[in-house]
Amino acid sequence: MTFSVALKKGTPKQTDLAVFFAASNVDNSHKIIASKKKFVAPTILTSCVLKSASKTFEKLGFTGGMHEKCLVPGCENDFFNKAMFIGLGKIDVLNPRNLHVLGMRTLQYVKELRASDFSIIFDKMPAELDPNLFFENFVIGAHRGAYSFNRKSADAQKMMTNVNKCTIYLESVPMKFKKTVAKADIIGLGANLTRDLINMPAAEATPKKLADVALELGKAKGDTPSPLKVTVFDKKKIQQLKMGGLLGVNQGSHKPPYFIIMDYQYKKTAPTIVLVGKGITFDSGGLNVKEWMGMSSMKTDMGGAATVIGIMQAVRDLKPRMNVVGIVPATENLSGANAYMPGDVLTMYNKKTVEVLNTDAEGRLILADGISYGSQKYKPDYLFDLATLTGACVMALGGNAAGVMTENDEYWNKLNDVADESADRIWRLPIWDEYGEPMKSRIADLQNVGGRWGGASAAGWFLKNFTNEPKNYVHVDIAGMATGAPKGSGAGDASGFGVQLMVKFIESVQ
Ligand code: BES
Ligand code: ZN
Ligand code: ZN
Predict the structure, then answer these.
(1) Beta-carbon count within 10 A of 157 CB
(2) For ligand 1, what atom is nearest to the CA of residue 388?
(3) pLDDT, tens digit, 9 for 90 and up, residues 257-291
(4) Model-level pTM greater than 0.90?
(5) CB-ligand 1 contact for 361 (6 Å cutoff)
(6) Active site members
């Protein structure tokens, strides 16, 4: 059963677990209830519970600080058996990222109580909070908190509880709020699909598995045909199309490559966005083998592909007013007797030749085919790629932002605006032609690595060579973001980064 959030008017008749949010006073004192000043939902608490809650707060030192929690039993006449108060911290400094983490923590607390559903009682929305920002980010965070990867540990499985439903009660529920919550539910489910694929071991999340998941999204639900048309090219077709990058990287693998296309067509005359995701289901580095630490997390190197698949699931359900095409070239990058070798020259789909000097810079080789195919076939108005592409991007920005590279100021501004309203943080890096100087090969059009410095931008510059319209191109390096973020979320598992960002971008330009 999947998790979902609903909005309802009023208060519940009876619920086992009611969650209330409490904001801390400016002086961080615990007199939240006594002062009633910034307490979010005081009016529906009976005086009995108010009394016992304020005593409990005092005894336990609950101040309403961010993510603090306090459990209080209900009284006989109350509509809940237990109330959990969760601190919001100082309400006027809440931003999309900590609202996301708040949603995540709330669900984790509810799971600890082994509740399968619960109610959040808002009464009135506090004036300091923008309801749409709140609901969108809280609900997406709640999906993340509700999510748990089906771990291969009996102990962990015993600990697993599933929360199916969260009902948020408000004094009044405008249609706008309902729409925001419904949209956030769809984004949250898309991000959970992304998380699942990234968290899976590479032996499970194979190129074939990515193709199967995509095909599943394209299947009809009952009588309704899926708005997504999914096509999967097998190795033979990839050879016919002469996608030399994908085939070159695939040489060291026993598993065949796949080239996956998820096509949502709204209208011929509508604008088109193509999203290409890096689908390296395991990156050993190839013959330029990685050391153990670097390799240990490389099952996540299909993070871009998983993000594009998560986005396409959301697109299928949200049906935006523009055409959206998701493209995933998928293969392992392994070593062995058949592996591609440093010095090899590959001819990409768009006929450009690339001298491979480092087999660990493989993402850009498969993306080159994905980007040139997307560019030629769909002539998109917007061409994005999402990829766990460079360690250099992680060096530059850590786990706090994805690196975005584009020559298009207008696209950058639009993306940055929607990022500001989401939990997905981005930062712009340049792709000036100077970054390409060291990537000119003596024997081919390009080589796949340049010098030591500016690696994130060098990779972005390389990819730009494979678009027909470099002006429409945006490269998003999510190497530091596919796991972990946002700050405070604590988990080292897949984050689902990028699904909210791109769905919001699509909505803003549709
Ligand atoms: N998949 C890695 C990039 C990566 C590093 C992702 C850390 C997530 C965390 C990529 O294929 C890679 O190995 N890139 C090389 C490029 C270099 C050889 C030019 C890198 O960043 O070291
Ligand atoms: Zn690599
Ligand atoms: Zn890689």
Answers:
(1) 11
(2) 6
(3) 999 999 999 999 999 999 999 999 999 999 999 99
(4) yes
(5) yes
(6) 290, 364
